[in-house]
Amino acid sequence: MSVWVANVSTSQFEVCLRESRTFDGPHNNLAVNWLAYDNNPSSWQAKESSEVTFSNNEVPAAENNYALCKNVNFTNPFYSSPVVLATVINGGSNNANIACPLKDPLSSWLEEVTNSYFRVCIKDDAGYDGQRSTIIVDYLVKGDLDPCINVSCKYHSHCVSLSPHRFTCRCESSCPSYEEQVCASNGRTFRNLCLLKQEICRTRGNFTDYHPGSCT
């Protein structure tokens, strides 16, 4: 069963349903749960919201099984994969007198929801014939942001998230073995720049890289 929303206005909207297979018997007591909001309540603690547009001239490709998909990058990374609420608006029209578009049954889904992006896909259930309307997908994201956002660690350490609200600064645990010598300002030669920064971090040393090559 495909379900989509059309003709959304400030006072009403239209919800459409269509079987994935042409009439396969009667369906009793079908119900569509819905939630409408203008500005999301502060209690939701939503971190961002926006929309994705699939224009009517975008053609689905065979390698995507004739679906249209787009990656959406989050404004800031999350600690873990957040919850993404999405609503598909089919038709791009606010005219409540227009009936549900008979040629536009849609399947829509989210995939690859990670801490930095998600992927939204739509597919014309009846097969694309060049007459699809513009599709808008509104989305809202809930979750805990990465606590390392805007954290600046000292001594060449890097921020590591421990929980949604805790972090620590850690030194580089391992360095490559290649040799590209660098001379530190304390007169010591290091095999490469990574090892120099690792030593500064571990000792909280007050020295820096001085010049490429050996100190001697």
From TrEMBL:
Keyword GTP-binding in record: no
Database matches in SMART domains: KAZAL
Domain of life of the source: Eukaryota
PROSITE patterns found in the cross-reference section: EGF_3 (PS50026), KAZAL_2 (PS51465)
Pfam families referenced in this protein's UniProt entry, alphabetically: Kazal_2
Protein's UniProt keywords contain Disulfide bond: yes
Domain Kazal-like: 163-216
This protein's UniProt keywords: Disulfide bond, EGF-like domain, Protease inhibitor, Serine protease inhibitor
One cellular component term from this protein's GO annotations in UniProt: extracellular region
Residues covered by the EGF-like domain: 144-184
Annotated GO biological process: cell differentiation
Official protein name in the record: Sesquiterpene synthase Agr1
